[in-house]
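Form P-L/3: holo structure prediction, ligand magnesium ion.
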Amino acid sequence: MTSPLPAFVAIVVAAGSGSRAGGGKQWRSLGGKPVIRWSVEALLGAGAKDLVVVIPAGAEAEAREALAGLTGWRIAPGGGARADSVRNGLAALGGAADRPVLIHDAARPILDAAVIRRVLEALSDADGGLPALPVADSLRRAEDGVMAGAIERNGLWRAQTPQAFRYQAILDAYAAWPADEIATDEATVVQRAGGRIRVVDGDPRLMKLTFPEDFAMAEALLPRQTRVGQGFDAHRWGPGSSVWLCGVEIAHDQTLIGHSDADAGLHALTDALLGAMGDGDIGDHFPPTDPQWKGAASDRFLVHAVERLHARGGRLVNVDVTLICERPKVKPHRQAMRERLAELLSLPLDAVSVKATTTEAMGFTGRGEGLAAQAVATISLPA
Ligand code: MG
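OUTPUT (holo model):
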């Protein structure tokens, strides 16, 4: 059993221009969510009683969009330097002198609750909690691409955020900070004022998004969950000369009747994808009462579901479709169906399975009244 966290408030600093990462990095999407939203959600989820987001002037609309649907946060204007932004955040917070304040950089999105706990617990016997990682690589100084010396790495740590302080302590420390010096983090400011900063374990995933290539690395580090969805569909046979199954048209002496092209394989698969996302079903997205879907090619339904998945930072892992009918024979067309699905889903062929079975002349498929399809899809979503 872990003890409950002490009550705390938080400042998320998002006032930088982020020019090295291409500008406005706090609003950019990471794993389907704006960068800033990750840490704001983590801090609110850990129980922040009040949270101030410090943003550049004129970015209110971006902040409201990025944090839409979340409650318990408000905005303060950024200043010219990071220290000015933090001061503005502290002024906006106000409150009791001994209240713990966490100060965090929005550019560090992957914030685990365990780090929040460690920095808060540091305040039980110190004036500040600093998450940090020991330097593992050898350090060298270079000038113009030529090594100019070595730096002893023992005792060196890479500072991260959030850093924790008591409200009055960080306020007083900033008041004492020399006006002509640049403060790069709060631990330095409080230590200079005589405070004792406890270094606690940081988290390698708390990396700071600095350069454009950092986004790809952070995407790979995001906590993800694997989910499975299933779908089922059936359509009735009627007069016709061909049938669409899994995106492939097969010559046949009947066709499947439906509002769209009645491709039961694609419909089952679309529902499997939507099901894995908890995103309703095909009828919610493409109502059969809507005339625009009359006779529609069903591949657009499937592509729509994949686009919804990608918008949430999700990835498709594999799909498996079973077609249930006595006729037509599916086997001669299986490879073409797999290839078409792989193309629609941007999946390798071995992640796409199409199978077929009969029901031994039993039931509605056995009597030739209709064809049924079932499908399973596995996805990976940011957790
Ligand atoms: Mg259908």
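COMMENT: The chain has twelve helices and 19 strands.
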